[in-house]
Amino acid sequence: MTEPQETVETRGDDRVDLLAADTDGDGRPDVWVADTDGDGKADLFQFDTDHDGKVDITMVDLDEDGTPDTVVDGDGGHPPTV
């Protein structure tokens, strides 16, 4: 059984994936970059570091200054759509 993960605050309630990249060539995304408030700028960044197809680390940049405001284990309550 999977333990519940911490839900992190994002800039908005919508998720538009701006990028889903396969950096290790296994055919599955392992980096996701999303906009959550509809301004077209990335504010949610997620990484699969152990290559199992699931988000291991989530970073949120609430003020969109390029420095993460929150970093948590797991998907932070915001699973990727792709």
From TrEMBL:
Organism of origin: Catenuloplanes indicus
InterPro entries associated with the record: TSP_type-3_rpt (IPR028974)
Gene Ontology molecular function, alphabetical: calcium ion binding
Top-rank lineage group of the source organism: Bacteria
Region: Disordered, residue numbers: 1-30, 61-82
Basic and acidic residues bias locations: 8-17
Name of the protein this chain belongs to: Membrane-bound lytic murein transglycosylase B
Coiled-coil zones: none
